[in-house]
# Entry
Amino acid sequence: MVTETSQERAGASPLQGDRGTTKIGDGVVLAIANAAAGEVGGAHLSHGGTRLPGDSSPTVGEFLGNITGGSGRPRGISVEVGESQAAVDLTINVDYGKNIASVAQELRRNVISRVESLTGLHVTEVNIVVNDLAFEQ
# Structure
């Protein structure tokens, strides 16, 4: 027989219990959201700057990141993590010809699904800024 714990009855986070708590770091949520974003076709995290079709030269930010070694964190994504909740902000480029609203909806759904299923955190929001269009090269 499966019995429900007092924590489950109260709707509390599975990360907090009578025997201790589990803290999920920002970097973990960031990595999961980054991987989840990469699973969605037609969306690419924005690295800043705008390019013309066929232009493969680095933006100023990319150039400086190459020189300094960058921050080691994906650009175009930020997270806020609390005890039982997380929020994600994404800045993306969408492939030209794709329906922007559909891509954003799929991206939001995938990020929420992955973060919640892998961490036990409740994702309160995934805010998406479409910064640019990506053209085939």
